[in-house]
Amino acid sequence: MLKVAIFGATSAIAQAVARRFAGEGARLFLVARDAARLEVVAADLRARGAASVETATADLAETGGHAALVEHARLALDGLDAALIAHGTLGDQKAGEADAGAMLRELGVNFLSPASLLTHLGNLMEAQRHGSLAVIGSVAGDRGRASNYVYGSAKGGLRVFTQGLRHRLGRAGVAVTLVQPGFVDTPMTAAIPKGGPLWATPDRVAADIHRAMKTGPAILYTPWFWRYVMLIIRLLPDFVFKRLKL
Amino acid sequence: MALRDDMLSWGRAHRALHEVRRPGFAEEAPAMLGGQAPVLAYGMGRSYGDSCLNPGGTLLDMRGLDRWIAFDQEAGLIEVEAGLTLADILEQLHRVAAPGRCWFLPVTPGTKFVTVGGAIANDVHGKNHHTAGCFGHHLISFRLLRSGGTVRRCSPTENADLFAATIGGLGLTGLILSATIQLKPVPSLWMEVEDIRYRDLHAFHALTAESADWDYTVAWVDCLAGGAELGRGIFTRARHAVTDRAPPPPRLAPRLSMPMDAPGFLLNGMTVGAFNALYWRRAPERPIRRIGPYEPVFYPLDAIRGWNRLYGVAGFYQYQCVVPHAASAEAVPALLRAVAEARDASFLAVLKTLGDVRSPGMLSFPMPGVTLALDLPNRGTRTHDLLNRLDAITAGAGGRIYPAKDGRVSPGDFQRGFPNWRDFARHVDPHFSSSFWRRVSAPAGHPTRGDVAPC
Ligand SMILES: Cc1cc2nc3c(=O)[nH]c(=O)nc-3n(C[C@H](O)[C@H](O)[C@H](O)COP(=O)(O)OP(=O)(O)OC[C@H]3O[C@@H](n4cnc5c(N)ncnc54)[C@H](O)[C@@H]3O)c2cc1C
Ligand SMILES: NC(=O)c1ccc[n+]([C@@H]2O[C@H](COP(=O)([O-])OP(=O)(O)OC[C@H]3O[C@@H](n4cnc5c(N)ncnc54)[C@H](OP(=O)(O)O)[C@@H]3O)[C@@H](O)[C@H]2O)c1
Q1: Mean predicted lDDT score pLDDT of chain B
Q2: What local confidence, expressed as pLDDT, does residue B389 receive?
Q3: I need a surface site. Which of A44, A157, B240, B260 has the fewest CB within 10 A?
């Protein structure tokens, strides 16, 4: 029976991952900032077969509370086999350009907050000498673009951070995985017109994440074709890239 | 908010623009009912015509509300959000199945890819209508959000009038947020099934009469057969098998998928004729009893994702009517003859006897009698003429059409078929509407054919 902690558990992608663990009878510890929504999600996972579901409410941008949260998770589950960090915000890029304070808040939620959780969780798993850590980045972190480089740089920071953490924790038998989704149809992207082959459902992406949390690859592009799309985008020379409206 | 053109009904014969809103949590729904234009819930879009469409208005995509609220495994009571699909429910029923103690859906339509909200709004029936009645018959209660922002708990004893109006109420009485349903205990998740080839309509009625101890009955009709063989087909009867074999694995995803529209010529009179003849011959002359999983019995079409695209870009119509027993001896042959004469028909024609278990729903489709359902490729005027002939036969027999399948019935035929529609209309939420409702509630004799022109 796996013991799994999920941060940002009311996210559409996180819920879809949690359902898959629940179906296997896992024990779950869920963290989100909205208590009412969190309870709705927890009840769903209980009915879907989770052996137990415990919750904690927290604004994850407040990194000061992270140590206690991770300790709470460890006690509630009596150890920890896997953790997923899913929260994030797709802030208004224009606001971030005009106002450095808004830009820093965006970096705070999308980079500092997961990096802080990864540190606490990583230390815990290193001490117990096993575990699997996954954090949701984004293909937006693979190359800075005019339309979303604030969000993108936070996600790109996670790329280097998880690379190094994986290098460090590998010796203790702990896997660290960066999840790189493409376009996923969730509330985060509600304002963007959808349709076409590039859009995936949360469940499609969750199937990949669920598997990766057991096998522990360094980077998971999901759906798989984004690995090749982003390879091309990264390799485009600057003089070509500059002309693209992305 | 941009208007979207990708919200279709299952027949794909109506095209319309909608503003789409998608609540992820029930608490977000009240704010989404606002605005000038009328709103309508949209489930899995498995209704064939225009009853789940609201052109120029707002569709509330309910598929984000797909959670379990409670599952009492002792009592077989489930409380779920309205966007949960029957497929999701079945998946959990597999998980908790134990030898000798299994739960099953009390009523299921011919596809499991429908939402609970949609199943209530059309008060769907299944192959067990003659023993179990409609879906609404097994509802304990539901929560209904009205456009003023109030949430009403509705049950046979609480807000009983809204309970009755909402069951089969075509989404017009408000937004169903969640529902409590009584499941049915079954000895296993296996089915005992017999397929019986029969020669004509008399044989169909005889088989129906002698199948009283089979929970589920239905017949596939070869609709190109005429003359003495009119109505010949394959009668299928089934019941839950008593066995302690471990439950069959659930089929979570379709095995095949139809990724794009087929060319229009694929389903022409010749191919359909050949299919019908072959299919009829394939069934053994003497019935063979078998034990098998329930999926092929209840959901044969679910094996192919997007099978509706077989009919090409023009889409197709489904015609389903019920005629009362007294008139069925004349009306059913007349309907089948009209279809056979059109030589254009239907790959899938289904005949079933509906029972007399009364639904709590005011506008529920079933009545005691015989129901016939046909798929007809959309060939424009020719198809509309045939459908009008079928309407005339149905109306003449004192029957009615099934709104879940309809995209073109006239106000007169609808209003004659559902004589209490005016009583129902008093419960319609003034901020909710659909293409179907605007059409059929127009004054009878009105030439309107709805505000999405079938193309
Ligand atoms: C292959 C196939 C076989 C079928 N077999 C049968 C059968 O055997 N028997 C039968 O009865 N039907 C049958 N149907 C029809 C189908 O069961 C109904 O059309 C059903 O209502 C579809 O549910 P849906 O979730 O797709 O709803 P939609 O088609 O999206 O919507 C149907 C109606 O429900 C309303 N609605 C949806 N959700 C809500 C909500 N939360 N609150 C209020 N209103 C809501 C909509 O406004 C609309 O009026 C079949 C359909 C197919 C495609
Ligand atoms: N959707 C995509 O196309 C896409 C693509 C690439 C990567 N991603 C990443 O995938 C992850 C999940 O997003 P999603 O698509 O599932 O969207 P989502 O449903 O909007 O989820 C985002 C979640 O983050 C939570 N959150 C935001 N700020 C928080 C804070 N300060 N404290 C606690 N929780 C906070 C939100 O909580 P509330 O519910 O309380 O608002 C919400 O549940 C994110 O990291 C996102 O960047 C998404």
Answers
A1: 90
A2: 95
A3: B260
Residue B145 lies in a domain: no
Q: How far B90 CA sits from the closest chain A CA (Å)?
A: 11
What is the extent of the structural domain holding B194?
A: 190-408
User: B249-258 burial, b for 16+ CB within 10 Å, e for fewer?
Assistant: ebbeebeeee
pLDDT at A192: 80
Confidence of residue B270 (pLDDT cuts 50, 70, 90): low
pTM above 0.90, yes or no: yes
- Helices B325-342 and B381-396 pack at an angle, to 10 degrees, of 160
Q: Does A37 touch chain B (CB under 8 A)?
A: yes
Rounded-to-integer distance, Cα B236 and Cα B403, Å? 25
If one counts the domains in chain B, the total is: 1
Which ligand is closest to the CA of B300, given by its number? 1
What does DSSP assign to residue B212?
T
Of the ranges A52-61, B280-289, B336-345, the best mean pLDDT one: A52-61
Distance A69 CA to ligand 2 centre (A): 19
| Mean pLDDT for the stretch of residues A33-59 | 98
User: Per the domain annotation, does A94 fall within a domain?
Assistant: yes
- What domain range is A93 assigned to? 3-241
CATH of residue A98's domain is 3.40.50.720
In a domain, residue B401? The reply is yes
- Is residue B6 a part of any domain in this protein? no
The ipTM (two decimal places) reads 0.91
pLDDT recorded at residue B259: 64
**Residue B16 maps to a domain:** no
- Cα separation, B141 vs B244, in Å, equals 33
Within a domain: A246 = no
Q: How far is B106 from chain A (nearest CA, A)?
A: 19
**Domain CATH code at residue B268:** 3.30.70.2520
Any ligand 1 atom below 6 A from CB of B247:
no
What pLDDT, on the 0 to 100 scale, is given for residue B450?
A: 45
